[in-house]
Recover the amino acids of this structure.
């Protein structure tokens, strides 16, 4: 197969990154923008020995699940890989993704998994409470111009986005206000190649329940010119806002080269440098650097499942590893004896402690550090010995849990383990260590996928395990 060759192919499956998979003359093709049951003309973009990447040039026969993407830049932007797939079919794709990972990578039989149907959203748009828009120069014919938006898939080319359909409408006006201010005072966007220029990203966070909005440009320096005027232009947006109200403006300083979006320093400018949100009757403080689930309505669905599975009676000692700002910990603390949260980002631990106080919860304790260091060493960061746990909840980032942490959890032998995962592949790897094979200590009670990220290829899963001897 040669580069730029065009072939006709019928798509049989979708890859986990959302490309259509088809076969031509023994070659496997991964076709961008093609869906299962589409027949397309595909143009080869990257030929390899046994497979090739391709782009959908023309749809010859559309899939019955194909819909028109509501967003005009859905194809160009790297975020919504599934927007052209009907939502019911998106849900089937994600259920299959979880099943395939657990059976293929985890080696489980389908009968061992007790896989439940994915819990999706009624309205799968405008669900995100957080957005990080890269700011930079885009080509406009012969010239370049300032823009903000999202990166195109696998590149750092900015696709200008005025109204991303996953976020609230006010985000477009906030972005516009920033670009207008930058143009007025000739404030340069950051240039990734040279490391020069000031504005790198625009972070916006919103508490959907409280309506509080935080605006935080990420800057390559300590000073943002005419910041007061910028704040005034933002506050003017509050008058017409049908979404929330801008309550806080701060700047995040990131002077390091590379792909990491946020730096460690936050300079407050207007209001507090955090917002609050409510969920499940609890109040949470959220700082710019802390992790908070981006889909708050599905977050409640997810945490409710995690809590149900923990089967708490009020007597249990619970670990919430990778606890962020303590959301799961505080959900569980209301039903457990003691909860110990461990989190690597110090600001998030600070938020978690404040959140416990805010909600008058006294039986939740938070420790800063890597779960695999603290729990494996048997001591928290203040030298308190780690107590024995009845229930362990883990909610790691995509890379999953460190193997030594899994070993320590097995030695601790809690009665139940709740694994909240955002990556089916690393989930499958870790479950194999906990519940794989005849002699495993744990059995899987249920696997519950939850759609936290409609239109994207990502899926969240809650797995409940219990000790076989209980
Ligand atoms: N349970 C929380 C956060 C989940 S996201 C919630 O639902 O909101 C994963 C969290 O793990 C992030 O807050 C991240 O900062 C943290 N983290 C990443 N690596 C870690 C490690 N090695 N040890 C402890 N926490 C870690």
């Amino acid at each position: 197969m040669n580069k730029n060759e065009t072939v006709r192919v019928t798509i049989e499956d979708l890859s986990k990154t959302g490309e259509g998979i088809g076969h031509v003359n023994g070659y496997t093709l991964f076709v961008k923008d093609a869906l299962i049951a589409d027949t397309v003309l595909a143009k080869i973009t990257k030929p390899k020995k046994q497979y090739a990447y391709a782009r959908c040039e023309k749809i010859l026969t559309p899939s019955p699940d194909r819909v028109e993407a509501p967003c005009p830049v859905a194809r160009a932007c790297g975020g919504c890989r599934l927007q052209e797939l009907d939502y019911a079919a998106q849900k089937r794709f994600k259920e299959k993704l979880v099943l395939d990972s657990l059976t293929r990578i985890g080696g489980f039989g389908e009968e061992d998994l007790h896989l439940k149907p994915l819990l999706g959203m009624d309205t799968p748009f405008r669900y995100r409470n957080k957005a990080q828009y890269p700011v930079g120069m885009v080509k406009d014919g012969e010239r370049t111009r300032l823009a903000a938006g999202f990166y195109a898939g696998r590149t750092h080319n900015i696709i200008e986005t005025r109204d991303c359909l996953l976020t609230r409408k006010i985000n477009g006006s906030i972005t516009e206000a920033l670009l207008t201010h930058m143009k007025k005072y000739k404030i340069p966007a950051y240039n990734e190649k040279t490391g020069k220029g000031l504005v790198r990203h625009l972070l916006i966070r919103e508490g959907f329940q409280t309506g509080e909005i935080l605006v935080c440009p990420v800057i390559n320096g300590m000073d943002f010119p005419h910041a007061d005027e910028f704040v005034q232009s933002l506050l003017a947006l509050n008058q017409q806002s049908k979404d929330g109200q801008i309550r806080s403006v701060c700047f995040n300083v990131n002077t390091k080269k590379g792909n990491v979006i946020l730096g460690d320093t936050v300079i407050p400018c207007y209001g507090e440098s955090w917002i609050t949100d409510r969920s499940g009757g609890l109040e949470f403080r959220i700082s710019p650097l802390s992790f908070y689930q981006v889909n708050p309505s599905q977050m409640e669905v997810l945490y409710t499942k995690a809590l149900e599975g923990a089967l708490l009676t009020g007597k249990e000692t619970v670990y919430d590893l990778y606890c962020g700002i303590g959301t799961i910990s505080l959900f569980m603390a209301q039903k457990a004896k003691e909860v110990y949260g461990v989190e690597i980002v110090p600001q998030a631990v600070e938020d978690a402690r404040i959140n416990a106080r805010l909600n008058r919860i006294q039986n939740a304790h938070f420790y800063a550090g890597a779960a695999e260091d603290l729990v494996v060493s048997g001591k928290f960061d203040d030298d308190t010995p780690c107590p024995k746990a009845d229930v362990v909840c883990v909610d790691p980032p995509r890379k999953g849990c460190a193997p030594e942490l899994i070993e320590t959890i097995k030695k601790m032998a809690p009665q139940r383990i709740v694994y909240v995962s955002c990556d089916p592949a690393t989930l499958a790897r870790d479950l194999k260590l906990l519940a794989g094979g005849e002699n495993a200590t744990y059995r899987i009670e249920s696997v519950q996928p939850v759609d936290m990220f409609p239109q994207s290829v990502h899926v969240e899963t809650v797995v409940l395990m219990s000790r076989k001897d209980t």
